[in-house]
Write the structure tokens for this entry.
Amino acid sequence: MAADPKLVELVLHEAALLDEWRLEEWLDLYAPIAAYWVPTEWGQADPFTTISHIYDDRRLMETRVRRFRHAMFHAQKPPSRITHLCTNFRAGPQPGSVVCSYEVAEFRNAKHRRYVGRARHDVDANGLITAKRFDLIDCDSVLDGISIIL
Amino acid sequence: MDMPLPDTIVQEGRVHRAAYVDPAIFELEMERIFGRSWLYLCHESQVAEPGRFFTTQMGQQPVIVARARDGVLHVLFNRCTHRGAKLATDECGAAKRFVCCYHGWAFDLDGKLAEVPLPEGYGAAQYPPADGSLDLTRVPRVENYRGFIFASLAPEGVSLTEFLGPVATSLDDMVDRAPGGLLEVAGGTSRHAYDGNWKLVVENHNDTLHPRFVHASSTAAARDQKDHVHSDGAGEVQIKQMRQNGAPAHVWEGLGIWSSAWGHSFMGDYHTDANMAARPEEDPVQKAYRAALEDTHGAARTEEIMGVQRFNTIIYPNLSFMSRFRQLRVVQPISVNRTVVITYTFRMPGAPAQMFRDSINFANVVNGVGSLVLTDDLETYARVQHGLESQGGDWVDVRRGLGGDVSEANGTLRGQTGTSEIHLRAQFAAWRRWMAA
């Protein structure tokens, strides 16, 4: 089923904010009860009984963003340059959800990295994101540290 | 060099950078340390029933840990004896036999070559040969200490008991804290890598001085976080841990660090019940946990067990674990400047389910690839490696607390203060011993 254009627009807007390091505005896209999740297992059932690469509730999302403003965030010195590529949008399994093919290209410290997979966003009636899940195609592989917001 | 190699590199209070950057020394380490030392392989819960197997690496050697039909555990090289193909490709699983993908040679779980297809092709020769000469190559020594499986690639050497020495009490701590002594690996696996020598992570896990510098950004971000913002438990546990990393200097100086022979070490805990749970005596999860422990051990022994305050332990060269938080890390050297760390969490089947959820939340902050904490450690390892590759100085200084070590009754040495580099000196004393011949 075709994705709701408003949801597609929201995901693209989120990507732009992340690419431009407008992280406080990025947080404003999320609901007061929200989650940002990058699982370690393909099709992982939940973030509470299996380890995740990233699993943030709203409180931790705020802490994550605040850290970017600290002078001693060593893993962001020099800062990464990133760009999101979001494509193949379609409606998610529930009303208010949208799924897409998702890629984040990162350049930092003379190195290129790519994070590729499927993203799902769930959005509430107010247009705020309640959950973002990014399943990496190499989720269960050896990974180097991820210091950016995907 | 005039002096024997190990003595040239490890000297009183200093280590030559070649130990971290010279590929020839790395090769020698694989032969003389990883090729001889006891190495941690897995926990018995990962190969609990007959037919279960688990694959891992001993240094750079791929091995299969398999439980045969009679319940006996075998550690075998993961290499077909015909033309060399890797046999088991999954991280773990169940198998009746290991059948090679190439020409179908089939091996029993004890490594015995059971069947060769079309054996008449070998003429008069009997295939499989009766003398076992084409069975899988066995890892010669395998031992189980309270469920933790260790093996050595060398047929002879120090016994596991002697090798572990007083550091075995950290494994005891993990088992004793589990009601009924029941522990199982659960909650998936996370693997991270960094561009640096394997020793850097082994050194850092008991380095009590680094958090205030390496983790300054996550500590400050956590400290400034408003606690009324919604958390489903994940943020709550992780933010507590990040704030703990910001403990004042006197806490780190006072908490204690101990080393023992063969390079092992453990540090005291900087978490107290007061900062992990507001009122542990009223917390229903803690109450249920304590009751379950008392069922196992009785009240007096439970008090003793809960009194052990130990954070991280290193069993040199490849194991690092947190007994109280049930986190375990296995170090796998890839090359002189590349290392993989595989992380596991343990569940206590006899404890309240919430404790396992807390362990997973804790795992996300200490071992998650996108953790606010771990990422700064990995960056630091890479910078150290980069610096050591330069000609800006030949020596690494490990003199913090030198001369102040105190012998304790249990066979350990205690550092003068909690930030002593006693663990580094212990590691390099063991390194020199392994590398000498």
Remarks:
- The interface with chain B takes residues 32-35, 38, 40-41, 44, 47-64, 66-67, 70-75, 77, 140-147, 150 of chain A (CB under 8 Å).
- Chain A is about 20% helix and 40% strand.
- Chain A has one domain: 5-136.
